[in-house]
Every structure is written in structure tokens, then in C-alpha cells.
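One thing: could you explain this record?
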Amino acid sequence: METPELLRFLELVREEVGAADARYELGGQPPNDSRVTSQALDEEWRLVVAFTDPISDRSAVDKMLERLVSPFVDLLRSVTVVKQPVQLDRGTTRPAAAQARLDRALAQLADRAGASCSLVIDDRSPMLWGPGTIRRVIIDVETAIIDASLLKKLDGSPEPTSRGRFVRDTMRERLDALGLQPAETVEADAQISRWFDAEQVAPGWVQTCLLAATAIDALRGPANAHLRPVEDTLRRVIHRENFGCLARRFANQYWLCLVFSGEFSELRAEAQAIRAAPLIEALVHHLPPVEPDSGGKSKASSLRLV
């Protein structure tokens, strides 16, 4: 029971409902106290939440706990049993099949977590994996960091610029106002064209791609070059007005990253990330190897992004 995931979820539950304490109880009778309420997790376990003062609106608190219980039950079951490595069938272990299944797993994770997209980022190379449409905009980690840098110069936000959509002319007007050197302007204009070429293929994906670029920059950008795989960098959470990100490390060198367009529930996001991580880790290990002499990129450039 004393796992980091379960303890972290207790903290998140306490924070979300504004309680003084949150704990698990096994068996026995539910608490009978005006300051305490509980929700059953299964036939044996319950989640107990205690407040400093008597609960004035017990119905509202109980509804909030009920909303939190569903992902929490999955987490409880997953961490209270002996974890076994995910066994992939022979067909899935082929690189192309593993990539296709990883694409589906990441899409399903984003959907369950209510995220704009989910990504896997390699901390030791330019490799990353994510939704197929993003490959038309972001080729690798280095491209994402460059995109995030330009985005900061243009307006500092991955939000659409007009009527819920990015407008090429608005972007170019902002670019002209920056007063860059001619060569820098040409390069930045090419970046903007790349963004909008993708928009023509898949409308609405420019925002998702720039959200992804912002997340990648937050994890791998120059400002984070000092980060090391130690306890305080095994999990990162970012909350901003128009951007959110929850990332968890696995296998010492990868980030499993959920990207949001605004505020999000850490409780829901982390529960789904923990649940999806074993399969995603197994699939990543069956992807094509990175060749050191190719600058950290896969031998097949089309495999940089799933």
C-alpha cells in the first residue's frame, strides 16, 4: 500500500477537496463524524477525507469524491497487485507494428486524461513519439525547441490568434514587428509556413502542435539542461493560463507527457498515465534503435514520430 503513487494521490485528493487529511481504510465501519466523509473504492477499501470543521455541504463534497473515485479505483487495483512486465505478442514486437500500437496507446491515453495530446520524449536524443499529425509540424525535439522559441517571441502563448484559429497573416505581422535580421526573418517565416501547411492537412492541429512544442521545450529546452534523473525530476507538473503538462519518467531516459490547453486535474491525469505506462514502455523498447552516428536520430527518418 505504501507506494509513491498511492501517497501522491492522497495528497492530490486532499488538495482538490480542500481537506485537512485523506487516507485509506481497510474494512470496518465507515466513519461517523460530521467532519469526515468517505467513498468506497471496492468491497474492502474506502477513501476517507477529513476536514477541520464540520462539513457544511456534504452532498457537494460527496459528488466531488465520486467524480475522483473512478480513476482512483483503477490505480488502487494496479498498485496493490504484483506488477508483471507487459508481454507483447510476436506480431506487435515488429518495429512497424509496435509503432502503430504505440500511436493508438498514446491517443487513447490522451482521450482518457482529457488531454490535447500525449507524447513520449527521449531525454538522451532528439527522438520523440506522438500523434501522427504532429510529424508534419514537429520533426524531433530540436525542432520543437526552435518552434517554442519562436512562439515565445510572437506572443508567448500557444492559444489561437483569432476566432479559435491561427491566422497566417497575424503571425507574419507579429514577425515583422520583431525587427529580426533578414536571415532570421526568412527562417522564422519558413517555420510559420510549416505550421500552416499542417493546418491545411488537419485543421485545428496547429494549436496542438505548438502546445506539444511548449511541453517539449519545458522538459528539454536549454533552461532545463541541468536536470538529472533524480527523485525531484521523475515527475514534472506545469500549470499555466493556456497550457498544462504532466510528465512522468520511465526507463531512466523517457518522459511520458500529457499536454493540455489549460487547467487540468492532476488526479485524473496521473492515474491514467500510471495505468498506461507499462504498455507504452514495452512498446517503446521495441521501436527501431537510435544510431549514435546519425546525430541521435533513427535510421528511418519517418519513424521519428509515430
Remarks:
- Helices lie at 4-17, 58-79, 95-113, 141-154, 168-177, 182-201, 205-220, 266-284.
- The chain has two domains: 4-79, 95-303.
- Residues 95-303 form a domain with the Beta-Lactamase fold (CATH 3.30.450.30).
- Confidence is low (pLDDT under 50) at residues 292-306.
